[in-house]
Amino acid sequence: MEIVNAGCTVILDWGFWTKENRKEIKRYGENNGVLVEMHYIDIDDKTWYENIEKRNNEVISGNGGSSFYVNEGLLNKVSSLFEIPEKRRNRYLV
């Protein structure tokens, strides 16, 4: 909030895995006078798995920065938690 109050735009690159997570952050913004805008990038499963494999290879090689390795257990867990935003009129309702 300090950054927003200083007049800067803030981008949160968090999962917001569930509809309730997304509602919570929108409510938080509304309660604090902050316009919250969310974007959802819809990719196919093949691309998603390729991105995870690339990320894992970067972690293994020591070039992953602060990223962590996504094993099959974690992959299954996050897959089961994620709720795809509803799509209406070519826009996603998050």
Number of domains: 2
How far apart the termini lie comes to 22 Å
How do the strands line up in the largest sheet? 1-2
Secondary structural class: mainly alpha
Average of the residue pLDDT scores: 90
Share of residues in strands: 5-15%
Q: What's the overall geometry?
A: globular
Number of strands: 2
Order of helices and strands: HHHHEE
Description:
This protein is mainly alpha-helical and 94 residues long. It has two domains: 1-38, no CATH class; 42-83, no CATH class. Helices cover 46% and strands 6% of the residues. It has helices at residues 2-5, 19-31, 45-60, 72-81; strands at 86-88, 91-93. The chain has a two-stranded antiparallel ribbon. The radius of gyration is 16 Å and the shape is globular. The two termini are 22 Å apart.
Give me the secondary-structure topology.
Blueprint: H1 2-5, H2 19-31, H3 45-60, H4 72-81, E1 86-88, E2 91-93
Antiparallel strand pairs: 1-2
Task: Write a short abstract of this structure.
The chain is mainly alpha-helical.
